[in-house]
Write a structure and sequence with these properties.
about 700 residues, 11 helices, 34 strands, globular, Purple Acid Phosphatase, chain A, domain 2, 8-stranded mixed beta sheet, about 25% strand, Immunoglobulin-like, Purple acid phosphatase, alpha+beta
Amino acid sequence: PYCWAKIGSRCPYPRKRTIKRRRIKLLFIFLLRRCSGHNHFLFTVAFIAMIGNYSFFLLLFVSVFISLANAKETISISPKTLNRSGDSVVIQWSDVESPSDLDWLGIYSPPDSPHDHFIGYKFLNVSPTWKSGFGSITLPLTNLRSNYSFRIFRWTQSEIDPKHKDHDQNPLPGTKHLLAESEQLTFGSAVGMPEQIHLAYAEKVNRMRVMFVAGDEEERFVRYGEAKEMLANSAAARGIRYEREHMCNSPANSTIGWRDPGWIFNTAMKNLNNGVRYYYQVGSDSKGWSEIHSFIARDKFGEDTVAFMFGDMGCATPYTTFIRTQDESISTVKWILRDIEALGDKPALVSHIGDISYARGYSWVWDEFFAQIEPIASKVPYHVCIGNHEYDFPTQPWKPDWAASTYGNDGGGECGVPYSIRFDMPGNSSEPTGMKAPATRNLYYSYDMGSVHFVYISTETNFLQGGSQYEFIKRDLESVDRKKTPFVVVQGHRPMYTTSNEVRDTTIRQKMVEHLEPLFVKNNVTLALWGHVHRYERFCPISNNTCGKTWQGNPVHLVIGMAGQDWQPIWQPRLNHPDLPIFPQPEQSMYRTGEFGYTRLVANKEKLTVSFVGNHDGEVHDTVEMLASGEVISGIKETTKTPNLKTVPASATLVGNSESNVSWYVKGASLMVMGVLLGFIGGYFTRGKKGSASANRWIPVKNEET
């Protein structure tokens, strides 16, 4: 409490002194708020100046503030090298002036991609400290066989372009104002390491196919055996790839959608013993080997069957991209992995019936998908059938007049190529694309597992009587040995029966009833499973849209497209009419729900049970049981279920917190004034013994964080 006019004496003008002090404090508060995003050193200087001798610290504060006026935004990453897919990088930024909730972080691979060719983005406001001009984002990344870089952009409301939208019609962020760009992030030796491992049954019962991706075509192998320490058997893997010129439309063949897919390797483990656990790893001595995985070989004489079945799962990404991704797929994979691990040494399989990754022309989404399913697909065979989002393109060879509005451009220009090369299912079905692209494969096939004969069909290519697919289905169903496999399960993507009122699919459903249903009824198909509609729905044993008076010969149809895609037809009642669902549930529909999940099939020679498992709790919510004779012995009529809105937490945290970067000038300034601060603080507390100390108490400035 000393007078500004005469240091060391009482001020003769206490009122003027108080006014001056208040004005200076207001100046400091203003400067504090302007510099709140820079560093804690400025806070310390300003607060001490407010309660002590102002002159020196006012000069010091103003000089540092002026130097900061020219400070440039910074961005850094840690670590700079990741080992494998799923490892996380922390991206930190600081010195962002006047932060906006539209400031965003772009994720790029390859790192020299044009600004608008990001693979994804996140707004900086996901960091709790973004308003202070600094923050951090933690991202788990997938190995795309190329380095990453990260860029921070400023985007303003006035620059929102209504014509520049993503798949969901949301505006894409603008790239006009680049604030900062990081150095490159590498995957080190992992570029050559095998990843995205997945299994499938081969033609012969004593074989298991394994596929994986690597960054170059150098020869790779699988080595396997009945003990981890003795992987004595080996087989060479053949590598193939597809090119941008094989894509038939945008965005798949555009510079935005295309990324190098790497080399897809394919081989089979042979001469496997029935029902035995095998250990295996893939790779090479020169490029490195994967972790050791294991699976249970198919048992030629086994009667037990376990299958996890669903459609339309897709994948989640730790960023927003050009298309909608499926966060619920994380829970689906988590619960299926739980069930697989609970089986112990019992064999099982996964059946994913169409709309696999939802990449739709953005090729890196396939990498995200295979990285996500590897924990289950490396343990059990992962079987698929084709859906509209893998295949449909404007010039596809089979598009009758009645299907003109059904088959569009849902494949995003992929025309079935990634699906055909990244998977290798049993059989040799294929259809030419009519262009440079290789023929579409994995269309229809079948295999036995335990007591069940599984059949996969394509609803995107010709299934009418007289076509090659129809003839395959007819021959296959007529040749089933019902003593060996008393249950027959047919699977395809678009449903023959559903209470979803999607008008454009009406004709295709009618054609399926006309051409395929007679084969199903005649050959006593047990179950018909479909996706496409993102719901779970179970029908009565049905034929010609009528519940059979007798159960024999009428398949039970299930729609199981509820594994991840979150676009849902509205089945729940409207708010102002809770008693009137938009799509009333007819008597043929025994149970339906809007909940995400998957189905679990368990069978032996006497009985087959299908259970619907909900993602929100991992518990069974619907069950139907059938005897080998075809009789349905359980599965009561249920009305529409409103899903529990409680969600299961994701197995991996996508966004985390970390301390912000400390700029170089903070360290320098701290060293420079450390002695001065210590001396000043000591002197201040000595003077503070005077009686006027209580009048100098200060209240901390509250910022947005507190």
